[in-house]
């Protein structure tokens, strides 16, 4: 059975600036399986510890793909934790695709 749904996620932090900023709200298509390509913006569910008892969501851009793993980067490399620190991530950690921004957060500066 294939399950998909639309939802939202709020951007927290500056790892995807200038594409998305802290406080932006994004529309996301969540799906168990999806075709992915380099350059695509995705939502990841990453374990916070080795036991995977807790996880956090991250918004990243796909920088590379192989059969089982994906390389992801934040657009703001100076403020992003991503494959440069984690290494490649399992494809199963990709849980959604960013469709677009529907509410822009306040940009300081």
Automatic annotation (TrEMBL):
Source organism, top-level taxon: Bacteria
Active site: 15, 60
The keyword Hydrolase appears for this protein: yes
Pfam families: Peptidase_S26 (PF10502)
Keywords, ordered alphabetically: Hydrolase, Protease
Keyword Hydrolase: yes
Membrane topology (UniProt): Single-pass type II membrane protein
GO biological process, one term: signal peptide processing
Record GO cellular component, one term: plasma membrane
Protein name according to UniProt: Nickel-type superoxide dismutase maturation protease
Taxonomy of the source species: Bacteria, Bacillati, Actinomycetota, Actinomycetes, Candidatus Nanopelagicales
